[in-house]
Every structure is written in structure tokens, then in C-alpha cells.
Amino acid sequence: MENTWKSIKNHLKENLPSHAFNTWLEPIGLIGFTEDEIVLEVPNQFFYEWIESHYKNQISHAANAFTKNNITIKYTIAPDKNIKLENFDPITGTAESKSKVKKHNLNSKYTFASFIEGTNNQFARAAATSVAGSPGNHSYNPLLIYGGVGLGKTHLLHAIGNFIISEREYADIVVASSERFTLDFISSIQKNKTEVFSKSYRNAEALLIDDIQFFQNKEQTQEQFFHTFNDLYQQGKQIVMTADRLPKEMKGLTDRLVSRFESGLVVDIQPPDYETRVAILMEKAEQSGLDLPYDIVEFMATHIKNNIRELEGTIIRLLAYSSLTNCEIDFDLVKKVVRERIGGGLFTDITAGDIIRSVSEATKISERDIVGSSRRMQIAEARQIAIYLCREIMGSSLMNTGMQFGGRDHTTVLHACRNIEKKIKTDKRISHLVRALQKDITFSLA
Ligand code: ADP
Ligand code: MG
Hints:
Elements: H1 2-15, H2 18-25, E1 29-34, E2 37-42, H3 45-54, H4 56-66, E3 72-77, H5 94-99, H6 122-133, E4 143-147, H7 153-167, E5 173-177, H8 178-190, H9 194-202, E6 206-210, H10 219-234, E7 238-243, H11 255-261, E8 265-269, H12 274-287, H13 294-303, H14 308-325, H15 331-342, H16 352-363, H17 367-371, H18 377-394, H19 398-404, H20 410-426, H21 428-443
Parallel strand pairs: 2-3, 4-7, 4-8, 5-6, 6-7
Antiparallel strand pairs: 1-2
Helix pairs in contact: 1-2, 1-4, 6-7, 8-9, 12-13, 12-14, 13-15, 14-15, 16-18, 16-21, 18-20, 19-20, 20-21
The structure holds adenosine-5'-diphosphate and magnesium ion (MG).
Residues 110, 114-116, 121, 149-155, 280, 308-309, 312 line the site of adenosine-5'-diphosphate.
């Protein structure tokens, strides 16, 4: 299979400009092959997206030329590789990635120190810290961290490993995605080396398994994992797992595995709130030597909501754009990049005036009152809705929004947004009104 992969690469090399090949294809590694699947490894998310949008066809064309037709190509992101594209991975920092020594397959960037705490991840972080401090020693075994994509599960998992080896350099930590586990298992069967496989996993002091949802519907692998799990558990070794949902919500997972998985401590990570998003952006920008003004950070945090990987991706993309096109990072560039990421159409030439007018029409409260200083309940509510909509629809900064509403300061604006966010969840009348307004205002532009 190494040879097939070599042939595919050579084919690409002959058919692509050399700078493109060297930059984007050369760093791709082969992880595994099955009948109808090739699994490739790329250095980071940005890299993956770039390949998908620029070289997808060439790669699958080349792959099909050397394998049976319609082979599927899958990518995984390298947990810890010397990243070859320093320019495109500002988060890692060039110097660091060059000198990084590979150990344990742990990504050395993913530490507790670089993990920003927010109300969304506090509990998970506390549990992870506690487990890292005394692995295997308490009832948090196994620890299962679950939550949506890009919310920091893998980061926390590696942080546990990194912490343990920072205390004892030669601790035997095994960290693997469940896909890796599966591939190792399959290839050990093919090569008659199941003992080596068992050893490498069952001697671990701590076993960190990422994304266990991929065990779904893989009975043999589950069986194997079950034994590994029990073995380690009985020896008092720490097991930490991550998943994108609760085990009992996974399909095709045997009952005994589900009950094992949930027998220790189960913690979740939620999407980050606004403040956490701002904190993360500031931190990531700083790490990559990017000096972003606060209103740009605010704008990004307002529009990119559910996923920290997305926030990071936006910064990486900003840097890539500005370095490729040699232009400054300004508001226009940020808008362009954010628009690309969230799929356009969100912000336009709407002004605060338009929004205030719409709110006034819907609530029968005069525009003047909306921007005025009255604290009467209905008026204050209409004002808060208008403020909320300005932020949601235009993504205008806290300060700017405050200016539009009679020079209020940013804490007032923040408070208004929070209040409305809360009411949308609990108060049907408000949620209907806000939704209708949102629709009206954005539709009137289409
Ligand atoms: P998941 O495994 O949940 O899909 P990751 O752990 O891969 O998510 O996180 C995606 C990216 O976001 C990573 O680069 C990670 O470092 C970053 N990240 C996630 N949560 C945080 C956080 N709380 N502080 C700093 N960076 C974070
Ligand atoms: Mg992950």
C-alpha cells in the first residue's frame, strides 16, 4: 500500500506545478488503506480545507488511476506532526514546530495553559485537571468528555497527557483516536501481530481515546476495546475518552460498552458564550502575532458562534489572505473572510436606523423613545430588542451600537443583548417578535 501511495503521489507530482505539489501534496501522509478507502493525514484544518477546495479532483483522479474505481479518500488531522507549512500555521509558531520532538503522539500545543476557560467548559476542564493530577486515583475513571465539533475535546484530552508527561517524562501515555485504534487493530490482524497490538495498548498508564463515536457499528473493534478497557481499568489505569454525544445515544454500540463508558464521570462541553469567544480570539490572535483591534474581534465573535475551530480558522485565513495578497487586515478583509465562513448574506447595508424603524413599527414605540432614556418597561424592552438586532444583523461593535442608542456604554449594550438572548429562550412572545423582526429586516434587503 505504501507503493500505491507513492505512485499516486508521483502522478500528482508530474501533473501539478512543483510549488503546489511541494506545498500542499508532499506533506500529506498515508495512514491506512482498505478495499475502498484511503485514509490520509494532513497537518491541520486549514490545510485540509485548502486541499478540499483546490486539489480534491486531482487527488481523487490520481487515486482512481492506481486503485479500483471510486475509492473514497478520507482525511484526518495530524495530532502532532512537524508542521511543514510554518507560514500557514501561525497558531503553532514557526520556531516551535521545527524543534518539536515527537513523543507519545501528543500535540504539545494542547495544554491546560492554552485552554481558555469559560462557563461552557469549566466543569470539563476541572475534571480533566483533576484526572491529570492523579490519574487512575479516583472515581473519575473513566472520564468521558462529550460535546459538539470544535469545542475543545481533543484539546483537553491531549492536555491531560501533556500534563502527565510534564510531571513524569517517561510516563507511558497512549493517545489515539478511535479510528487509529481501529486501524491498528485491523492491521495487527492482517499482519498476525495482535499481541504487539495488545501490548502497546494494554501497557499504558493512561489511555486517551478520542472520538469514540467511531466505534459505532464496528463489533470486532468494540470487542477488542472492551478487553483493553477492562484490563486497564482493573489495574487502576486512567482511561479518558471523548465523544460527540452520549454513548447511550450512539447507534450500534453494545450495551456493555455503553455502561462501561458511562460508569465513571461524564462531562460535557457546550458552545462558548460571547465573552469566551472574545477571549479565545484575543488569545489566538496574540499567539499568532496578529494585532487585531477590538472591534474586529467583536465582529468575529458576534458572527462565528458555535465552534472554536472556526474562530481559529478565521484567524488563520485572515493571515493567509493578508500574506498572499499583501494587504492589511482591515474591517473589509475581515468581513470578506467572515462572510465566506458563514456563507454570506448576513450583513449588508442595513443601518441601525433601519432596525430602529422596524422595531418602532412592530412595537408602536416611537423611534425617539427607543433611543431615548425612558426606563418604562415596554420602552426599555423595545430598546433592548433593537440593540440586540443591531448586533445580530449588522454585527456592529458594542461601542458602535452604544453610540447609535444615545451614547450608551458597551456594558449597557452587552446587558441588553444578554437579556434578550435569555428572554428568547424563556419568553415566547419575545422570541416570536424578535424572530419576525429579524426575518422582516433581512428579507427586505433580499
Ligand atoms: P473537538 O475535539 O471538540 O472537535 P478541538 O479540541 O480539536 O475540538 O478544538 C478545536 C480547536 O479549537 C483546537 O485548535 C483547540 O486548540 C481550539 N480550542 C478549543 N477549545 C479551546 C479553548 N477553550 N481555549 C483555547 N483553544 C481552544
Ligand atoms: Mg476532536
